[in-house]
Design goal:
Number of domains: 2
Helix content: 40-55%
Signal peptide: 1-28
Oligomer: single chain
Protein name: Putative exported protein
Keywords: Signal
Strand content: 15-25%
CATH architecture of the largest domain: 3-Layer(aba) Sandwich
CATH class of the largest domain: Alpha Beta
Family: Belongs to the UPF0065 (bug) family.
Structural class: alpha/beta
Distance between the termini: 63 Å
Shape: globular
InterPro entries: BUG, Bug_dom1
Radius of gyration: 23 Å
CATH topology of the largest domain: D-Maltodextrin-Binding Protein, domain 2
């Protein structure tokens, strides 16, 4: 082999790298050239699905391409996260993130086919309070009064949630640990069976989503006792917060965010982020979020990631404390 041939062979990897690097701005300029898919780890019909579909409709206008929603419900949002992770890091498959997929499943499952920490944030979307509710005849009107009532009972309370390992369940377990409240957890598969149980007298109180709680509290069907977060919720600001009740560290609302699979090129991420934030900033989209029991979550991505990491540490500790295992 001549010296010229050896030099040429040595330069080939560098030439390939340069060619790849020059295609990145072109990729972003041309993206998207076909429909974009958003994977959702919940069944159709709930607030997460509704907000995602409204986001997809508006995002499609910004991107100039159809944005479709693909529902992949399943435990801990593992099927949705796995689908997105295996679909290619090109920006054409995104996923809706929430505490289940990012802050709970990594502590419940020993081996996941992806690392949630490697997903790339596009933008935070919304936050939703977990609401502690009771029947109207319960002799307590807020969280402090519920604590006082529990102390007068020979047997502890029981409470329902919309699922084992959900933010509602784990927030209540954190509250139990900090307050000394004696309450047995009964898990239901979603808000509807938990609502039937509380109305039927099977449980004393329930922790449900704001989406389900808001209309029932306003109609008088249920009594709202508290939101399991430190700040008041704009949908029902009269409800006592955990901070007002004396437990400021119990601050575990649910949240939604849009993410891209690990390795998605930065220029594509930036284009998706710009289009998404344009949608999120519109007053009518923010109003839509509120009508679905959520609040707009306005965080830049570094602050969003810090919030997720903080919540993951909190929930991981609760999971270990109660020795929760995956079903």
């Amino acid at each position: 082999m001549t010296p010229f041939s050896r030099a040429r062979r040595a330069l080939l990897p560098l030439a390939a790298l340069c060619a790849w690097a020059t295609t990145l701005p072109l990729q972003a300029a041309e993206f998207p050239q076909r429909p974009v898919k958003i994977v959702v780890g919940f069944a159709p019909g709930g607030s997460t699905d509704s907000i995602t579909r409204e986001l997809a409709r508006r995002l499609g206008r910004e991107l100039g391409q159809t944005v479709i929603v693909d529902n992949k419900p399943g435990g801990g949002q593992v099927p949705a996260m796995q689908t997105a992770a295996g679909s290619g890091a090109d920006g054409y498959t995104l996923v809706i993130g929430s505490p289940g997929g990012f802050s709970v499943s990594p502590h419940l499952y020993r081996k996941l086919p992806y690392d949630a920490r490697e997903f790339v944030p596009i933008a935070a979307i919304a936050t939703q309070a977990n609401v502690l509710v009771a029947r109207p005849d319960l002799p307590a009107s807020n969280l402090r009064e519920l604590m006082a009532l529990a102390k007068t009972r020979k047997q502890g309370l029981n409470y329902g949630s919309f699922g084992s390992g959900t933010s509602a369940h784990l927030a209540m377990e954190m509250l139990k640990k900090q307050s000394g409240l004696d309450a047995l957890h009964i898990a239901y598969k979603g808000d509807p069976p938990a609502l039937l149980a509380i109305k039927g007298g099977e449980i004393d109180v329930a922790v449900i989503t704001m989406f389900s709680a808001q209309p029932r509290i306003r109609s008088g069907e249920l009594k709202g006792l508290a939101v399991l977060q430190a700040r008041p919720d704009r949908n029902l600001p009269q409800l006592q917060t955990t901070a007002q009740a004396g437990y400021p560290d119990v601050d575990l609302p649910s949240w939604l965010g849009l993410f891209a699979p690990p390795g998605t090129p930065q220029p594509v991420v930036e284009k998706l982020e710009a289009a998404t934030r344009k949608v999120l900033a519109t007053p009518d989209f923010q109003a839509y979020v509120l009508t679905n029991g959520n609040e707009p979550l306005t965080l830049d991505n570094p602050a969003f990631l810090a919030m997720i990491q903080r919540q993951s540490a909190q929930l991981g500790q609760v999971i270990r404390d109660i020795k929760l295992q995956a079903d």
